[in-house]
Design brief:
alpha+beta, 29% helix, 32% strand, five-stranded antiparallel sheet, Nuclear Transport Factor 2, Chain: A
Length: 128
């Protein structure tokens, strides 16, 4: 797993800098199981596109929307990452499917909604 995550880091998927955070961003908790499942499927498809076939078990999922930018919404989640034959590990990830942005944090984060919200706002702002 470290080799594959290392390849993602080398590919520039994990961003160390942060963008300016717009004041108009609204965060919503996603609690509907169908929507959690849909977001999880989207994250898994993003990982497959990076050559990292994995299964995710996402329990904490949020949506971030910038009301001034229209209907674009970004999503963030804290998930257990399962790669065949490897021990599962918690990751934090976010995406903006309209722009095609995916950011993964594999370690060094707090497992709570506040941290997830800041991570998603900083790395996957809706609309870019």
């Amino acid at each position: 797993m470290l080799i594959r995550l290392g390849a993602i880091i080398a590919a520039g998927v994990i961003l160390s800098g942060t963008q300016g955070i717009a004041a108009e961003l609204n965060t919503r908790d996603i609690t509907d199981q169908k929507e959690i499942s849909a977001r999880t499927d989207d994250f898994e498809k993003d990982l497959i596109q990076l050559g990292m076939p994995a299964q995710l078990d996402c329990k904490t999922v949020i949506g971030i929307q910038d009301n001034s930018q229209g209907s674009d919404e970004s999503f963030g989640a804290i998930c257990d990452l399962h790669i065949s034959g490897k021990k599962s590990s918690a990751i934090m990830l976010c995406n903006d499917t309209m722009i095609g942005k995916l950011t993964i944090k594999a370690y060094g984060f707090s497992v709570n909604k506040a941290a997830l919200g800041e991570f998603t706002k900083s790395n996957c702002q809706p609309g870019g």
